[in-house]
């Protein structure tokens, strides 16, 4: 394979040249959002300079360009996740909206009183709250797959939860708080055997590993553009054609109709049925450019390099006296959550920021999993392929200095 050149890819990301508190920025907040290569920034401004129009409706040149750009982006997404059919790709605002779409549309139709919805203890609030709301509205029950002390889901316990009341199993592929890579393929296969529908939250996986929705076998796969080097405000619901075709629209308006009278509306086929109103055209096009970029670097190159960085970071952080790593599963991606004895996580985050190092501190919108480990917050450095071993050394040096300043007597 061609050698991965981190210094070459870094030149593609203008923001990495920023200086913060006199130091070159270290961006270790990739689980919150990723930076954008120049090609994505350029693609969005090219759209507004040369192609800007609403799509589908008007019969003029710019409408044709905008429609081609938008539908081209849909094809990029299709190939990126190996979806069998381009019309199974629905553009939404992000993962949160994607899960709400499924919960509101599919959920309203299929979940009833006494039914059960399974999520894991690792979920982001975006994959908890919509299901909780659905369960409350329908008199259904939310059930939770527990994790072991490394932060990996317990498949045996999961199997015990499955029964003929299980309507949907919704799990994350990678935990945003701990970095655990969840065996979603096995989880989906077991759910199917129980007759349940499945949703995989790919918000934290698509930027770190090859995703093939046909191989995964789930009914729905969702992700956000901004976590895969694309713009904010654009995301994807992929669903199996038959499942999507059977679902009612969740929002009504323009673009999603075939015919409207005051008596009755006939809806468009998928994907338009789920894309009411003017969509985020420019940012969909930007997401297409981000996928192009990832393809050029090569997702396997990304996965391999990031794994080396993660192993190095976990080893050096974990060796600091007073550091407790949270999330130590064998299979992990990107995230190195930890707490430091005698420091609040905010103090650690502030000290890192003073050195130009950006990490997230807090509950990471995943309170249940942090509480499972007896903490309310962690410090969460999270890696992307533009990070370097030197940057990890800078992080480790700051944490080491802090640890040395407040040793137990
Ligand atoms: N699920 C996971 C696993 C996430 O990490 C995130 C974002 N932190 C979301 C869902 C929600 O994504 P968004 O805020 O882009 O809608």
Automatic annotation (TrEMBL):
Where does the Aminotransferase class V domain lie? 26-395
Q: Does the keyword Lyase apply?
A: yes
Specify the species: Acidovorax soli
Q: Which family does it belong to?
A: Belongs to the class-V pyridoxal-phosphate-dependent aminotransferase family. Csd subfamily.
Residues represented out of the complete protein: 274 to 682 of 682
Q: What Gene Ontology molecular-function terms does this entry list?
A: cysteine desulfurase activity; lyase activity; pyridoxal phosphate binding
Q: A GO term (biological process) for this protein?
A: cysteine metabolic process
State which Enzyme Commission number(s) the record gives: 2.8.1.7
Q: Which cofactor does it need?
A: pyridoxal 5'-phosphate
Name the UniProt record assigns to this protein: cysteine desulfurase
Its catalytic activity?
Answer: (sulfur carrier)-H + L-cysteine = (sulfur carrier)-SH + L-alanine
What are the alphabetically sorted keywords of the record? Answer: Lyase, Pyridoxal phosphate, Transferase
**What domain of life is recorded for the organism?**
Bacteria
